[in-house]
C-alpha cells in the first residue's frame, strides 16, 4: 500500500499526479488517511487511529477504506503490487 | 571595483509574425509575439503579417509595432514575394515566423529567396512537411516506428462505407489542414465530409477513433536530429472544436522519449506540435503532427522553455543549447478580451493594407 513517489499531496487535500496532469480533492479525513499512508502506516494502524479519532466501527471503516483505496488505484495514484503487475 | 559598468545593449531584431487571429480556433501569432518580447537574447520590433482586417493582433499596439496585410496562399507565391519585398524595403526584416499550416508551403518554397534578401526562417524541409501530412501519417508512423491510429485519405464519400466497415464507428473525419469531427454513423460522416471538403478541399482523412486522454507536446528540432525543446501538456478544458482552452504541463518520460524519437528519426527542423492520445492500452498514439508553433506556446515559455526565442536564434544560425527542464504542474487558462478600436484604424488596415 504505497502512493506513487511522484504524487504531490498538499495539506489541503489537493492531489496532483504530475505524470498525467490529473488532480483530485480529498475530504478532510481522506487527506488524513493519505498522510498516514504516506507515513508508511499499514491498514491495522490506520484503522486503530481512525477508530480512536472518529466514531466508527471496524466494519464501516474497512468498507470505506477499501472503497477509497480502490479509487486511488483506479486513478493510478498507487504503486501496483507485484501480483497486480503480473495480472 | 567597478562602480560604473556599461549597460549591455541587446541587439534589436525586426521579426515578422503571422497568425494574429483569435477566433475560437486561435492563431499562435499573439502568444509567439509575447514570447519574443520576453526574449533575453534580443529585443524585437514586431511586424504583424495579417490576412484579414479583423485579426485582433493588428490592433494590439503594445505587442505589434506595425502590421501589413499579405496575400492569401491561394494568390500564389509571386504575389506573396512581391508583398514581402515591399514590406522588407520598409522594415528590414531579420526573421519571419509563419504560424499557419496553410501558408507554410509558400514560405518553405521561398525560404532561399528570403535568405538572399537577409530574411531568415527556420522551417521544416519540404520532404519533412509532406511526409507528416495527415494523409501520410500511417506511412510516417511505419517508417519511424511511431504508433499512429489507422487512417485513409479519401476523395469520394462513397469510400466511407468500406473504411467504416474496417474501423467500426465512431470514426474521425478530418480536413487536410484543419477541422475534425467525430461521426457515429454514415450520414454524419458524409455530412462532415461535405462540410469540411467545401472549406479545406480534398482529400478528407478518415481516421480510426481512439478512446483516451488527449495530450500535446510542443517542441523544437535543430534539423540534425537534436531536441532543443519539448514541453508536454495535458488538455484540461477542450472546446467543441477540440482546442485546448486550459492545460497543464506534465512529467511523463514516455512522451519526451517519443518526442526525441520523432525528432531524431525524422531530423525535424523547426517548431512542431504533436497531438497525442493515451489510449486505454496505456500506449501513446500520434493523432497529428503540426509543423508549426501551437497557439498554447506561451505555456512553454511560462515553464522555462522560450521556444520562439530559440527558433529565432536557430534561424539566425546561432548556437542554441537544448533546454533541459521545465516546471511541471503549471497551467494555462485562456481567456478572450474585448478591445475597443477606433473605426479609423480598421479603415486604414482595410483600405491601405497596413497599420
Give a short overview.
The complex is a heterodimer of chains A (87) and B (355). With 87 residues, chain A is mainly alpha-helical.
Explain how this protein is built.
The complex is a heterodimer of chains A (87) and B (355). Chain A has 87 residues and is mostly helical. Chain A has one domain. Chain A has four helices and three strands. Chain A has helices at 28-39, 43-53, 58-74, 82-86, and strands at 8-9, 14-17, 22-25. Chain A has a three-stranded antiparallel sheet. The longest helix of chain A is centred in the last third of the chain and has 17 residues, at 58-74. Chain B is of the alpha+beta class. Among the domains of chain B are: 12-122 and 338-352, Rossmann fold (3-Layer(aba) Sandwich), CATH 3.40.50.20; 150-208, Dna Ligase, domain 1. Chain B has eleven helices and 14 strands. Chain B has helices at residues 29-37, 77-91, 101-117, 126-131, 137-144, 159-167, 186-200, 253-266, 297-302, 307-315, 343-352; strands spanning 12-17, 43-50, 66-69, 95-97, 151-154, 171-174, 180-183, 204-208, 212-222, 227-238, 244-249, 269-279, 284-290, 331-333. In chain B, the strands form three sheets. In chain B, strands 13-12-9-10-11-14 form a six-stranded antiparallel sheet. Chain B has a four-stranded parallel sheet with strand order 3-2-1-4, covered by helices on one side. In chain B, strands 5-8-6-7 form a four-stranded antiparallel sheet, covered by helices on one side. In chain B, α2 (77-91) packs across α3. The mean pLDDT of chain B is 94. Chain A binds chain B through residues 6, 8, 16, 18-23, and chain B through 213, 215, 233-234, 236, 247-252, 278, 328-329.
